């Protein structure tokens, strides 16, 4: 399998060829499902990799496999647990059966920016946090860095004019609380990963998608879209790059400290950059022919009121299945303060 080479990142060249990897004291395999050049990898993962290489004077190197080269989004947790990947991209919604509590940061209306959501999520997801103890540690993994995306909007191949436009539309969601939110608004949620969205739109399998501004262009969705909302808060998507606890334990204390500190820095860096990109991302989508629509104030208020109960319903359902969702939600809300 051909390894992907990382470009020049903050003045550092990360060599990922097989020959270069042999020269490292430790070489870690990193995998995700993001297309090459995706803004999440560019602003979260790659600065982390560069930071670690610099901090260790090249003693730690990386083989990076993007674009589902090692497996699909839903397989990343098992790939990380089994050591096929040392560090894997974990999208909570793609693993709702194993990591249902992680979608707490995807509840609609809870935060207004990537950094607001990211830092609150990181507080409960980092090693020792309530989410880590409830969900990640039992799965044998630990988060190295995380990101919550800015509030999602509805992008549609149809006209959007008001809250009634949601009725009956088949909407791609990442599952969990997003699906519940779309159901409450009268839409038909269709769960799928982001890499599947373009084909689904082009074939008419779905009429629209709930997505962040920044992901529309990387997945080449604009040609299949007509209108989009702005100013709504339809939830988010939360992700983390994780390492198995066994792999982490096999590293020296110095390397563990380096990975942990680099992950903290990358988390803070990524959310700030992504918040700054919102305006330019919207402009690129507009330039590609998609029309942004501001819904009437009465409709926006109706949507907010309709979605207000999503969090409590989400928590009650998981509590009933023996998961401490109410505890996790309270911790997340407290971290947002």
UniProtKB/TrEMBL annotation:
CDD domains: PBP2_TRAP_DctP1_3_4_like (cd13601). It comes from the Bacteria. It is found in: Periplasm. Residues 1-23 form the signal peptide. GO terms for biological process: transmembrane transport. It holds the Pfam family DctP. The keyword Signal applies. Keywords: Periplasm, Signal. One of its GO terms (cellular component) is periplasmic space. This is TRAP-type C4-dicarboxylate transport system, substrate-binding protein. It comes from Thalassovita litoralis.
């Amino acid at each position: 399998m051909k390894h992907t080479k990382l470009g020049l990142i903050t003045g550092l060249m990360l060599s990922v060829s097989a020959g270069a990897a042999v020269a490292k004291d430790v070489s870690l395999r990193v995998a995700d499902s993001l297309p090459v050049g995706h803004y999440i990898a560019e602003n979260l993962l790659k600065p982390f990799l560069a930071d670690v290489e610099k901090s260790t004077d090249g003693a730690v190197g990386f083989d990076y496999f993007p674009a589902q080269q090692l497996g699909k989004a839903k397989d990343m947790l098992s790939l990380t647990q089994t050591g096929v990947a040392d560090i894997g991209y974990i999208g909570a919604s793609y693993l709702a059966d194993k990591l249902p509590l992680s979608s707490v940061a995807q509840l609609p209306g809870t935060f207004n920016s990537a950094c607001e959501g990211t830092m609150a999520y990181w507080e409960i997801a980092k090693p020792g946090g309530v989410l880590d103890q409830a969900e990640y540690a039992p799965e044998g993994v630990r988060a190295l860095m995380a990101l919550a995306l800015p509030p999602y909007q509805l992008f549609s191949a149809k006209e959007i004019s008001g809250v009634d436009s949601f009725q009956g539309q088949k909407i791609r969601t990442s599952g969990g609380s997003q699906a519940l939110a779309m159901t409450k608004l009268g839409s038909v949620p269709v769960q799928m990963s982001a890499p599947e969205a373009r084909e689904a739109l082009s074939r008419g399998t779905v009429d629209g998608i709930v997505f962040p501004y920044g992901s529309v262009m990387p997945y080449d969705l604009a040609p299949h879209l007509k209108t989009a909302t702005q100013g709504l808060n339809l939830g988010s998507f939360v992700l983390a790059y994780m390492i198995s606890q066994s792999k982490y334990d096999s590293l020296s204390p110095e390397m563990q400290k380096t990975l942990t500190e680099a992950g903290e820095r990358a988390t803070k860096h990524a959310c700030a950059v992504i918040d700054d990109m919102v305006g330019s991302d919207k402009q690129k989508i507009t330039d590609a022919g998609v029309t942004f629509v501001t819904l009437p104030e009465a409709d926006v208020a109706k949507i907010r009121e309709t979605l207000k109960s999503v969090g409590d319903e989400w928590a009650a359902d998981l509590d009933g299945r023996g998961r401490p969702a109410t505890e996790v939600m309270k911790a997340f809300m407290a971290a947002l303060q």
